[in-house]
Design goal:
Blueprint: H1 2-22, H2 31-43, H3 50-57, H4 72-88, H5 93-120, H6 122-133, H7 136-141, H8 147-160, H9 168-189, H10 193-206, H11 212-238, H12 244-254, H13 268-278, H14 281-293, H15 295-315, H16 330-345, H17 352-379, H18 384-398, E1 405-410, H19 412-416, H20 421-424, E2 439-443, H21 448-451, E3 462-465, E4 475-490, E5 507-508, H22 510-525, E6 529-543, H23 546-554
Parallel strand pairs: 1-2, 1-3, 4-5
Antiparallel strand pairs: 3-6, 4-6
Helix pairs in contact: 1-5, 1-6, 2-4, 4-5, 5-6, 5-8, 6-16, 8-9, 9-10, 9-11, 10-15, 14-15, 14-16, 15-16
């Protein structure tokens, strides 16, 4: 069965990379780290005229975000990714750097799985792998350059040290390593992980797994290491004395400014976020409660369960809530569910109750994979900005236009749904290119007063716009990129192609694929269709030259 275990282990990084390839674009939450990685790769780290060179080239000086973020993650991704990009080409750079982050998180999950196997047995580790890989959110977000996902690998490595160890000397050492990992994750990437650090420490103290004398030295050492890493690097890139996570803590916890992004009820994490993150319908309602209730699994589950749930409970006091803020508890809670699944499945021959429960657990894994696959397909339809930019570049490159330099304006929605510097410039500035290669220049102006000025629009050849009516001047729609807006049921009485509105006959990207699949499916089912509902999100506009503009006015 060793081959089966190897297959299970390899499936985790394979699924993470599959999610990356199916949904290669990014959202606004990921923009700082992906843009910063691009800038480090392309512009390097100047040693002279530092402020002038950074401020004139690096994206974060124009779009700093609500709070400054650390450059540690981008520096690591750029440093490791640079030789790989040199081999495969810069056009794949965004996939490479995201793939590196995904593989780091996959490696952390595999370390966790290995420790589960060593401490809880191989069957439990197999159930853990099956339950973990069938979770959509972790597989999907593992390669996304969110600060949370840079921290995720460190927290997962920390939890891997907490999986039951009977030997006291080993337990103390592993608790110290867990404290060290959590300290670095807190000080460098996400300050709210201080809560998880506290809950983990308190649990270890209350269960006499470690003493204060054993905790304080690793905390101080790793905390100072984190400061010595973060403060110099981030002060350099931001060009001011800075510890980013102190700013983040002040912004979120002291000022409470995160509430400006939305407020959720106190129970949101328990009633909504956790069931979605764990995906498997039985994990939260049956398996985890059973592991806590059952005498044969309780003691093994407590070190994983208590610090995690206390972290979620305390963090629930923060008004602004997002599922990604608690991704860290997925591995330990999944391992807890795996304990229960293995306990029940191992006794399937002892009673009808255990047999029925075992069948339900096996079935739930298949259901989870089905749910995750559907969510991946739907999520891949949510990046119209990235698709629009890619399609427009191909359209302009393949056109017979005599333009050698093309200037494109990308609006807010485009930038929020996939437009990145990697997509704008899929090459190094000094890379040799054909003599007739078109040069693309981009503008991301957001100021409303500027956008209402007619003269502003005169300098652009193309525009990516959510609302064409706000684009001033003579323009023609050369294509539309659609995005997911829900699930629709189409009945046979609706003719094929009747949902194509005027001006939307040139649909590009995933929307065009969905339309083809929809038409084929309806042909086979007599006109029925249940699937993604797509609507126009980004219009690709081309400026009408003088002659064309006159003809358009006459028409």
């Amino acid at each position: 069965m060793a081959a089966f275990d190897i297959l299970l282990s390899l499936t985790i990084p394979t699924l993470i990379l599959t999610h990356l390839l199916v949904a290669p674009y990014t959202k606004v939450e990921e923009s700082f780290n992906i843009q910063a990685t691009h800038d480090i790769l392309v512009y390097g780290t100047p040693t002279t005229n530092i402020y002038e060179r950074l401020s004139s080239r690096y994206d974060h000086f124009d779009f700093p975000g609500a709070v400054p973020r650390t450059f540690i993650g981008p520096v690591i991704l750029a440093g490791i990714g640079q030789p790989i990009i040199a081999l495969v080409g810069f056009q794949y750079a965004q996939l490479v750097v995201r793939g590196l982050l995904g593989l780091f998180n996959a490696g952390a999950l595999l370390v966790f799985k290995a420790n589960v196997e060593r401490a809880l047995g191989r069957p439990t580790a197999r159930w853990y792998a099956l339950l973990q890989m069938s979770q959509f959110h972790i597989m999907f977000y593992a390669s996304r350059t969110l600060p949370n996902m840079f921290a995720f690998g460190l927290t997962t490595l920390a939890f891997s040290q907490l999986v039951g160890v009977s030997d006291e000397k080993t337990r103390v050492w592993r608790y110290r390593m867990a404290i060290g990992s959590l300290t670095m994750a807190t000080a460098v990437f996400r300050s709210e992980l201080a809560i998880l650090l506290v809950t983990t420490t308190l649990y270890g103290l209350l269960r006499s797994h470690i003493s204060l004398r054993g905790i304080i030295p690793p905390f101080i050492v790793f905390f100072l290491m984190s400061l010595l890493l973060s403060v110099p690097v981030d002060s350099y890139f931001w060009q001011k004395p800075l510890w980013p996570e102190l700013w983040g803590f002040y912004y979120n916890a002291v000022l409470g400014s995160s509430s400006e992004w939305g407020v959720s009820p106190w129970h949101y994490y328990f009633t909504s976020a956790l069931p979605k993150i764990l995906t498997n319908p039985l994990s939260t309602v049956a398996l985890i409660p059973f592991a806590l209730w059952n005498d044969g699994t309780r003691n093994k589950a407590l070190p994983l369960l208590i610090p995690s749930l206390l972290f979620v409970a305390i963090y629930s006091l923060q008004p602004h809530k997002e599922a990604r803020f608690i991704f860290y508890v997925s591995p330990p809670l999944t391992a807890t569910a795996a304990l229960a699944a293995n306990y029940i499945f191992a006794r399937r021959g002892k009673s009808v109750t255990f047999l029925i429960a075992s069948v339900a657990i096996v079935g739930s894994v298949f259901v989870s994979f089905g749910i995750s696959t559907a969510m991946l397909i739907i999520s891949s339809l949510n990046y119209p900005g990235g698709e629009a930019l890619s399609e427009l570049r191909k359209l302009v490159t393949s056109s017979s236009s005599d333009l050698q330099t093309v200037t494109i304006h990308t609006d807010v929605l485009s930038c929020m749904t996939g437009v990145t510097l990697f997509g704008q410039h899929p090459y190094y500035p000094n890379d040799p290119r054909p003599a007739n290669e078109i040069t693309f220049n981009y503008d991301k102006t957001e100021d409303e007063d500027t956008l209402r000025n007619p003269s502003f629009w005169e300098k652009f050849d193309y525009v990516l716009a959510e609302n064409p009516s706000k684009v001033i001047g003579p323009w023609e729609t050369v294509g539309v990129v659609e995005g997911f807006t829900g699930v629709e049921l189409v009945r046979p009485n609706k003719p094929l192609g009747s949902d194509v509105e005027s001006g939307q006959d040139r649909v590009f990207g995933r929307g065009a694929l969905v339309r083809r699949v929809k038409d084929t499916f309806r042909t086979l089912t007599g006109g029925w269709w249940v699937g993604p509902k797509m609507e126009p999100k980004i219009y690709m506009l081309r400026k009408l030259r003088e002659g064309k503009a006159r003809r358009a006015v006459k028409e």
